[in-house]
Amino acid sequence: MRVIVITLIAVCCVSFGEALLSKAMKEVGPIDRLSLPLISRIASNGHLWVGIFLMAVFFVLYSIALSWADLSYVLPLTAISYLTGAFLAKYYLHEDVTLVRWIGATVITIGVIIVGRGG
Length: 119
Fold this sequence. Notes:
The chain has helices at residues 2-28, 36-43, 46-68, 71-77, 80-91, 99-117. With 119 residues, it is mostly helical. The chain has one domain (2-117).
């Protein structure tokens, strides 16, 4: 049970981290080439740093879960991040998440869980 709890917390961290990273990079704008002003603008974006922090927390929690259980058990639990990512894209980032994307994220999540539970 502790593996499931730690992994679900980790998935929340990575999903929010990715959403914040996306928000930060949309605020920065398209990157054609790197320059000092652009790097400064990226480095001064708070969303970027919180996103990186949350993704680092994910990595630590995921590593802990892997110390307790096999990869073939832990990895399928992270598949829910496809759905949480789509949810955050839709309701936090206000992106157009089409029905096809919802179905795709759901199919991927179910498929990974089936593979992970098999055998």
